[in-house]
Amino acid sequence: DFEAFLALLPSAVDGRKLRHALDVRHESFATPAFLALARRYGGVPVHTDSPKFPAIADAQADFAYLRLMRSQSDVPTGYTPEAIAQWAQGVRDWTSGERPRDVFVYFINGAKERAPAGAMALLAQLGLQV
């Protein structure tokens, strides 16, 4: 059934190749078979940092889509400096090496007021201008 859905997703629009982030929120999707299926259709599971949803990563995917959902309103950047440093290292790992890939990181969480500061702290850790 899920493959039928994936088959409906366009691979390109107006000559631009599309990649699809698949926000699957059940542990039944955390299987090698699902990851291979998603890859076949240009998709990658959203890697969710959340106590409610599984964190499904695909080391073979062409890109990574990270949704950081554990922000704490009592922390100025939502995430501790140590946690931001860990996420920054993960981004560096994905974007370097023999097979560099694109990484999309979103701070989408309950402490929305901290999301901009968290994103800026991550960019600073990566040595990017904010």
Helix and strand topology:
Blueprint (H helix, E strand, L loop, with lengths): L1 H7 L3 E2 L2 E2 L2 E3 L9 H9 L2 E3 L1 E3 L13 E6 L12 H15 L6 E6 L7 H11 L5
Parallel strand pairs: 3-4, 5-6, 6-7
Antiparallel strand pairs: 1-2
Helix pairs in contact: 3-4
Largest sheet, if any? 3 strands, parallel
Strand order of the largest sheet: 5-6-7
Distance between the termini: 43 Å
- Could you report the average pLDDT, rounded to the nearest whole number? 94
Helix content: 25-40%
Number of helices: 4
| Residues in β-strands, percent | 15-25%
Question: What is the chain-wise order of helices and strands?
Answer: HEEEHEEEHEH
How many β-strand stretches?
7
Alpha-beta classification: alpha/beta
Shape: globular
Which value, in Å, is the CA radius of gyration? Answer: 16 Å
Report the uncertain regions: none
